[in-house]
Design a protein that fits this description.
Elements (H helix, E strand, L loop, with lengths): L8 H14 L16 E2 H11 L4 H13 L10 E2 L10 H4 L1 E2 L5 E2 L8 H15 L1 H28 L9 E2 L2 H4 L8 H5 L28 H16 L4 H7 L4 E2 L1 H20 L3 H19 L12 E2 L15 H5 L3 H12 L36 H13 L3 H14 L8 E2 L6 E2 L5 H12 L5
Antiparallel strand pairs: 1-2, 3-4, 5-6, 6-7, 8-9
Helix pairs in contact: 1-17, 2-3, 2-5, 2-17, 3-5, 3-6, 5-6, 5-11, 6-11, 11-12, 15-16
The structure holds (2R)-3-hydroxy-2-(alpha-D-mannopyranosyloxy)propanoic acid.
Length: 445
């Protein structure tokens, strides 16, 4: 098997490992060398999945760094800051330090972490010996911490038990400027220009500012941070005061999937009561996600909690039911849509991989971040989930196309879907990590 540029798998794997090693600052792997010089929560999970293929202890260290910054509430913060001062908004803006002394942001990201624990455990068992002992000890020792994270989400972020997680910033979704959030952001009116006199450090590290959110968007992002900080990052106070309050259907589907995965780990550890609790959570989130599916489009929808309006933007977020399952009819309709001409089967795509927004939609922009480009880690997440759900052919096609896309050895943050050009940051850690997993771990593994 060779990628589109003829790169042989061992060369691709070696390059990916080299990228991860280069981004390793000892305590953490930066999400990217210059654009993102810190640890991001959901990036760290994918990074650990990649690291597990080359070093189980190093993968565990990555997850331990994230856990070391866990808030007393159970929240895993979306950024754990390292020593670099080159990111804006940095620790001075967030003003959040944990009792353990970790400098963090004050919001969260999708809870994919149980998948990383599963992958690390499996890698340890495949290797045997010291790796097995270490991975099994790690899973047993940290199980309660992951459980606390899921419990926090279920209470603080789903206060009415609807099975739909609320977010208070687009950054929490991980899909920062996706058309999913356009309507909600349009209603956010910053009362202070918190960008004035501050430098957008992100723009220094991309070839073209159009690949990043606009200043107008950043003003709103900073305003929400300001509001949350003013509320002392208190869960109840934030919920009542912040100008952005959305349910995130994709994050909810991840919570369902990850709760099931954590329940399986709980079974293996003999934690039966907790496994039962997690399965009930998975069921709740699955029900929440399915309740949002549009009978017209077949896609799941986010909701503006304050107006009750459901949003119909055709983005990758709408495929949440592919992650959590639960209704065979919804699932097969989504599979047909996903592989059809509006999505992976679109005739103009360079690789048959899901764009972050449907080409042709008004909000689609082929070079702009979460408004169109394809994201390798997302391809991996769908590959892994669909394989687990028994959709082996589609999963293997995502893997093959995903690897072809990465044959340019750029390890881009995201890719232009029509041309295949790498965009955003080069040497993005989670991109390298998923390449390693695809290349080294047997698909059923
Ligand atoms: C992007 O988000 C950060 C803010 O959290 C940024 O633009 O500065 C998103 O793609 C997010 O999903 C990702 O975790 C982060 C680091 O890769 O970058």
């Amino acid at each position: 098997m060779a990628t589109h540029t003829g790169v042989a798998p061992p060369a691709l794997a070696a390059s990916a490992a080299y990228i991860l090693r280069g981004n390793d600052i000892g305590t953490l792997t930066t999400a990217a060398p210059r654009l993102y010089p810190h640890l991001w929560s959901w990036d760290a999970a994918f990074v650990a999945i990649g690291l597990a293929t080359v070093s189980v202890p190093r993968a565990i260290a990555e997850l331990r760094t994230l856990l070391g910054a866990q808030w007393t509430t159970g929240m895993l913060p979306h950024i754990v800051f390292g020593p670099d001062e080159g990111y804006f908004p940095g620790p001075d803006v967030w003003g959040a330090t944990t009792p353990s002394g970790a400098r963090t942001s004050g919001i969260c990201q999708p809870p994919v972490h149980a998948i990383a624990v599963r992958r690390v455990l499996d890698a340890g068992r495949r290797n045997g010996g010291a790796d097995r002992d270490l991975a099994e000890r790690f899973a047993a020792e940290t199980f309660d911490r992951w459980l606390a994270w899921h419990r926090w989400l279920a209470t603080a972020r789903d206060p009415r038990g609807r099975g739909l997680l609320e977010i208070y910033h687009g950054w929490e979704s991980g899909m920062d400027n996706s058309p999913r959030w356009d309507a909600a952001y349009a209603a956010v009116r910053p009362r202070e220009d918190l960008l004035r006199g501050r430098a957008r450090r992100d723009l220094e590290h991309v070839a073209d500012a159009r690949q990043r959110p606009t200043d107008e968007e950043y003003r709103r992002y900073l305003w929400l941070v300001h509001q949350m900080k003013e509320a002392g990052y208190d869960d109840d106070a934030v919920r009542e005061t912040v100008d952005f309050r959305m349910t995130d259907v994709f994050m909810s589907a991840i919570a369902a999937l990850a709760s099931d995965v954590l329940a399986e780990i709980g079974d293996e550890l003999g934690r039966r009561a907790e496994a039962t609790e997690l399965r009930a959570l998975a069921e709740r989130f699955r029900g929440g996600v399915l309740s949002t599916v549009s009978p017209d489009t077949g896609l799941a929808r986010d909701e503006d909690v304050r107006t009750g309006l459901r949003l119909d933007a055709p983005t990758i977020g709408g495929f949440a039911p592919l992650l959590c399952g639960g209704d065979p009819r919804v699932f097969s309709r989504q599979l047909a849509l996903f592989t059809g001409p509006e999505w992976c089967g679109h005739p103009d795509l360079r690789y048959a991989l899901p764009p972050s927004t449907a080409p042709g939609h008004a909000g689609f922009s082929s070079r702009t971040y979460w408004r169109g480009p394809q994201w390798p880690f997302m391809n991996w997440l769908l590959y892994w989930t669909l394989h687990r759900a028994g959709e082996v052919d589609l999963a293997m096609s995502l893997r093959a196309e995903g690897l072809r896309q990465l044959g340019d050895l750029a390890f881009g943050e995201y890719y232009e879907p029509m041309t295949g050009e790498a965009l955003g940051s080069a040497h993005q850690s989670w991109t390298a990590a998923v390449a390693l997993d695809w290349l080294i771990v047997p698909p059923a593994g």
